Structures are given as structure tokens and as C-alpha cells.
Amino acid sequence: MGAVKIVSIGNSVGVILPKELLVKLRVKKGDTVYATETPNGVELTPYNEEFAHQMAAAEAIMRENRDVLKKLAE
To answer: For residues 12 and 68, what is the distance between their CA atoms, to the nearest angstrom?
Structure first.
């Protein structure tokens, strides 16, 4: 794949994704992608409405049960 460049976009920054990566991700300009941290780095995946609902539910559960999860992690 190769390297991607971080560029300024107004007051923010963004990355330029090569055309071949866009094809592999099956996304185009204006689409949303998820950036998920994995043990091997960051993984980009196309937006998936079902996954979005699952992540929202997981985040709500983690927020509500923060103390229990912290104790389990010990």
C-alpha cells in the first residue's frame, strides 16, 4: 500500500487515501469509515449501520457499568 500523507484541511487535518485503498475499502469521497484500534494498529472499515448500533450499545453498557468492568479487569 505505502504511506499516506497528513494534510491541513482548514483548522483540521486529514489523510489522503490512495485510489487503490478506496477501492479495497469500497468507499468513495463523502463516505464514512470507522477507525478502530486493534493490537496491530488502527483498522479502517466502511460504515455499517448495524455495527454503529452495536458500538453505541456497547459504549452505553461500558459507561453504565464502568465500576464493574474496572473491577473485572483487575
So the answer is: 37
Kindly report the CATH number assigned to the domain that includes residue 69: 2.10.260
C-alpha cell read off for 2: 505505502
In this prediction, residue 6 has a pLDDT band, given cuts at 50, 70 and 90, of: very high
**DSSP reduced 3-state for 61:** helix
Q: What phi-psi label fits residue 36: left (phi over 0), alpha (psi between -120 and 50 degrees) or beta? A: beta
Instruction: For residue 16, give its domain range.
Output: 5-73
In this prediction, residue 39 carries a pLDDT of 94
- Single out the residue of 27, 26, 33 nearest to residue 47, CA to CA: 33
Q: Count up the domains in the chain and report the number.
A: 1
